[in-house]
Amino acid sequence: MKRASKRFFLLILCFFCLLEPVGHAKNIGHYGQTFPVNEEDIRKVIMNKLYALQQSGDLEHVQRDLEQKAARQAMRPNPLALSTTRKPKTFRISPAVTVSHDVWTPDGHLIAKAGTRINPFERVHFLKTLIFFNADDAGQVAWVKKHYTDFKHVKFILTGGDVRVAAELFGRIYFDVNGIISSKLHLQHVPSIVSQEGLDWQVKEIGVNDE
Questions:
Q1: Separation CA 91–CA 205 (nearest Å)
Q2: Is the pLDDT of residue 15 over 70?
Q3: DSSP conformational letter for 17
Q4: Distance separating alpha carbons of residues 192 and 207, to the nearest angstrom
Q5: What are the residues facing 158 on neighbouring strands?
Q6: Contact yes or no for 2/109 (Cβ under 8 A)
Q7: Angle formed at CA 96 by CA 103 and CA 185, multiple of 5 degrees
Q8: 120 and 173 fall within a common domain
Q9: Whole domain around residue 177: which residue ranges?
Q10: Same structural domain for residues 66 and 11?
């Protein structure tokens, strides 16, 4: 049971190594005079505004607009600035990270102590192939439709486009919101194919002329 639990946690770490922060936040100072914030005054302003909207009948309209905006944003997040390329390339990225604190499984098994450099691929194999593409580009969609069956286990990750429309074509779809995953993989172009190769991630940026 402990072995299975440890293996599961390493698989999770393997994928979420991509989500490790790039660096630590820094205090860059401030400029000009600062003033204390009166929390009570702010609360009163907000409540008065909400009351005025309610009295005018506009509150329901505002709520509906916010819900519709959130729904649109969820279905079509902001696209990433990843272009196509005429110069395809393949490169590798290490998934290894240095853990900042002790990592334990729920059953109390220590996986790694703080400060340990850990590469999940030393213990587990990531079976899925990640396909990054912009669903607003008909050429990229056509390439993905033609080639995704070349891989046994695929996870589709959008960098642009409508999630609902893409899901109708490919099933379950993920969106790389804010480019968190693609930036960790150093992606610059799409479509791209990412999979485990040895102890690294192998990234293949596909050229627009590739069939």
A1: 9
A2: no
A3: G
A4: 9
A5: 133, 175
A6: yes
A7: 125
A8: yes
A9: 2-18+80-205
A10: no
